[in-house]
Amino acid sequence: MEYSIVVPVHNEAQHLEVQVKRFIQSLTADLASIVREIILVENGSTDGTLKVCRSLESLYPSLVRIISIARGSYGEAIKCGMLDSRGTHLSILECDFLDPDFVSCSVAVFRATNTEVIVGSKRHPEAVDKRPFKRRALTYLYNTFFLRLCMGYPGTDTHGLKSFQTHIAKELCEKAITTDEVLQTEIILLAWRNGLRIKEIPVNICETRCTSISIARRLPKVINTIRELRDSLNRFPPLPPATAETPVNLRTLPKTEVSSNK
Fold it and tell me: Which of 23, 78, 150, 260 yields a CA-CA distance of 20 to 30 A from 66?
């Protein structure tokens, strides 16, 4: 197994260097032996993020590499990173959620099962979500109303950390028709609709800095994505309910304090 880590970065000059160094230093010997690359996908930053990326690339020339795209787009960033990944497997992490425990659990699942897609779920029964109430409520409404009731998706989450067999990730990117933040939901829905083997593992999350996007601004965008996601899924026949996989329980996942904006 060779592993790629994809990290979208946008206006993270203040925190990026510390977070990446901490992540690399926290890798266990087993993880360090299989992590082939950490891909920092800088997208449309207006601060010194790209300069910090280049500094990290110089510091870790055999491990860190940079992709830079002009437009600030989370979806396009993760898509570019996945398409350019060189490992057999990959994880999508966040700049403020560079969690080696999630990577370690993903590796364990890939090695032990034939899973193709892993979703780090904030709504998993064993997850710990310490974000403010409004943020947790929005996640609940999005996953319960928009995804489960409107789309029929049986999973508990689509946002945030994810892991893939790399060839599967690239196939999903080729099938995707959306852009920006909604793409992270679309690729999980496409995986489900195409009958791929999906597992969920719990994440433990604690928001330590304010999100850059307010709920008032986010909600209209969420509503507008329903049509886009339906258009995407309607290209494929629906699956019978019996094919949906249930969440996997990994009770040994350590608690992690993070500063997620998701």
Answer: 260
Tokens 């009770």 sit on residue: 251
Residue 208 has pLDDT above 60, yes or no: no
Nearest of 123, 127, 109 to residue 198 by alpha carbon: 109
What is the C-alpha to C-alpha distance for residues 176 and 146, in angstroms, rounded to an integer? Answer: 19
> What's the rounded Cα separation, in Å, for the pair 248 and 96?
25
Instruction: For residue 242, give the DSSP letter.
Output: G
DSSP string, 144-168: IIIIIIII---SS--SS-EEEEHHH
- pTM comes to 0.85
Measured between alpha carbons, how far is 231 from 251 in angstroms, rounded to an integer?
Answer: 37
Q: Which of 87, 96, 119 is nearest to 205 (CA)?
A: 96
For the cut 80, the answer to whether the pLDDT of residue 250 exceeds it is: no
Q: What is the CATH number of the domain that holds 97?
A: 3.90.550.10
The closest of 171, 168, 194, 23 to 89, measured between CA atoms, is 168
Coil, helix or strand at residue 136: helix
Is 251 among the domain residues? no
- Rg of the Cα atoms in the chain: 17
174 in Cβ contact with 221 (< 8 Å): no
Task: Identify the domain containing residue 201 by its residue range.
Answer: 3-243
Provide the CB-side half-sphere exposure for 233 (13 A, CA). 24
Does a structural domain hold residue 260?
no
Buried b (16+ CB within 10 A) or exposed e, 198-228: bbbbbbbbebeeebeeeeeeeeeebeebeeb
Do 98 and 9 meet the contact criterion of CB atoms below 8 Å apart? no
Distance CA(6)–CA(206), nearest Å, equals 21
Q: What is the pLDDT of residue 211?
A: 54
